[in-house]
Amino acid sequence: RTDNSPPTASVSGNTGTITFNTSSGASQSSYKSVSVTWSDHSSIDTSSIQVQHLAGSGSWSHGSWSGNTYSGRWNVSQGSYSYETTTTETIRFRVRDVHGILGTSSNYSFSVTNNDNTKPTISNVSASDITFYASSGHTSSSTLNGTITWKVADSHSGISSVSASRIGSTSHISSVGTASHTGSNNYSVTFTLKNSFGYGNSYTTRSNMVRLSVTDNGGNTTTSDVDIRGRYIDNVNPFFSSVPAAKYHTFQTSQGSGATANMSVSVTVGDNHSGISSATVEKVSGSSNWSAPT
Question: Is the distance from CB of 138 to CB of 165 less than 8 angstroms?
Fold first, then answer.
């Protein structure tokens, strides 16, 4: 009797998805244990076994026979797959019996997902310090523009979007522009700050005025809230609004050489900004027997 039937196969192995997460590293590897059991009317030629790679990027190892069962590993490496992709790995087995008749197994498949679950980063954040000057005509209703610069990075799936938005009170910051890419993952945005500062040379910090946001292609988002400093300097001199006319006093010889006289004058001063802090009077000329004014 002639055996003209090909060997038949039963393939077994876990077909669940292998998932690589970047939070666990970028050089991971894994494998599936696979077995194929052959049946034939005669005997299997074990030396003729073939593992055919039909789809994916994996590789076969640890192949060995136990009776008519051939087992081994299908290995996959994270670096073989693009981030945020799912790839199907498919293999099948072929073997001949001792009469040279070729048998082919069914396909064995599973999926590999390379998931980017690591957030991008924001660094090198710098915001303009804003100074309002009374000499420039700035008032409590004035506004000035400033710039925020920063850098973003993502080591896996890449940057998808970058934005900036106002989160501070409109009493302090009136608007924030659109984030602009300036090259090499550097960004900038303009903002408009309101003069909500009292007079003084020291800067006042307005906390959490602008929110920077970056999202990668894996849907991971990082934000950074930016403080802005401002001040309002009164650099306009106060003024005299009236200066009294000269005053005169005549001494009579009958009063004697030790006679004295007191005279008073009024001077009106003003300041249009921070207000008068102090005033002094000093003697700039006159005879030595005239004491300093008070």
Answer: no
